[in-house]
UniProtKB/TrEMBL annotation:
Cofactor: Zn(2+)
Subcellular compartments: Cell membrane
One GO biological process term: proteolysis
Organism: Candidatus Stercoripulliclostridium merdigallinarum
GO CC term (a single one): plasma membrane
Transmembrane segments: 12-33, 67-85, 97-122, 142-166, 187-206
Topology of this chain in the membrane: Multi-pass membrane protein
Keyword Acetylation: no
Domain of life: Bacteria
UniProt-listed PANTHER family: ZINC METALLOPROTEASE MJ0611-RELATED (PTHR35864), ZINC METALLOPROTEASE YWHC-RELATED (PTHR35864:SF1)
Protein name in UniProt: Site-2 protease family protein
Length: 242
């Protein structure tokens, strides 16, 4: 469990709390922005279903599924309630399906990109201890962890939702581009949830067994942290000559 693992780490208790708060805030923001983007783009395409259902909002309470929220807090992975969309209301069906499906992923990628830019610009301020005041140091920790988690959640949510598995956005994109692939569509609608759960389960099993090359989510997560490391080193080299 994520919270248990954090609390078992040796170190300052306050830093652990900061780590958990940064994680939750970044996760909530990423998921809410993803769902809000779906609702907004659906409205722009002529479908007001999400707006009428109160989902065209950044209020987390309107988007979160109780079980998905609990899973996020316990294991670090959760989900939100899908935004209701009626494609029959789109002014142009194909354009509407593609843009609405891509909206959440695009929002997450933009968030991750902005996070990387802020990490590059702020890393010198987070690297140097300007004062012995613990409040300032804890603030530095919070900003640093928040940026890291915002970047990770942004990229990971985008990757996850681009998988061509029902009911993810990637499935809707593929189904819209290849409407005649009825066999694939029928299979995914019937078994997609099980395929998705199996993929997540196998990823965790491979991770526990140390088979990193079979854990696609773990591999992508490592790539993200490597990218952040490159950005941080470049920032220190440019701004502080370190």
């Amino acid at each position: 469990m994520f919270i248990y693992q954090v609390m078992m780490i040796d170190g300052d208790f306050v830093v652990k709390i900061i780590l958990i708060l940064a994680f939750v805030l970044a996760a909530v923001s990423a998921i809410v922005l993803h769902e809000f983007s779906h609702a907004l783009v659906a409205k722009l395409n002529g479908d007001y279903t999400a707006k009428l259902a109160g989902r065209l909002t950044l209020n987390p309470a309107k988007h979160f599924d109780p079980i998905g929220l609990l899973m996020m807090l316990l294991v670090g992975f959760g989900w939100a309630k899908p935004v209701p969309v009626n494609s029959n209301n789109f002014t142009k069906y194909k354009r509407g399906m593609l843009t609405v499906s891509a909206a959440g992923v695009t929002a997450n990628l933009l968030t991750a990109g902005i996070g990387l830019l802020l990490l590059f610009l702020l890393k010198p301020l987070l690297y140097v201890a300007f004062t012995s005041n613990p409040l300032i140091m804890y603030l530095q920790y919070f900003v640093y962890y928040l940026l890291q988690f915002a970047i990770v959640f942004g990229f990971m949510l985008a990757l996850f939702n681009l998988l061509p598995i029902y009911p993810l956005d990637g499935y809707n994109i593929v189904a819209t581009l290849f409407p005649k692939a009825t066999g694939y569509r029928n299979f995914m609608v019937r078994y997609g949830v099980f395929v998705l759960l199996g993929l997540i389960l196998l990823s965790n099993v491979f991770d526990a067994l140390g088979l990193w090359y079979l854990d696609i989510f773990g591999m992508f997560n490592s790539v993200i942290y490597d990218l952040m490391g490159l950005v941080e080193r470049a920032s220190l080299r440019i701004f502080l000559q370190v």
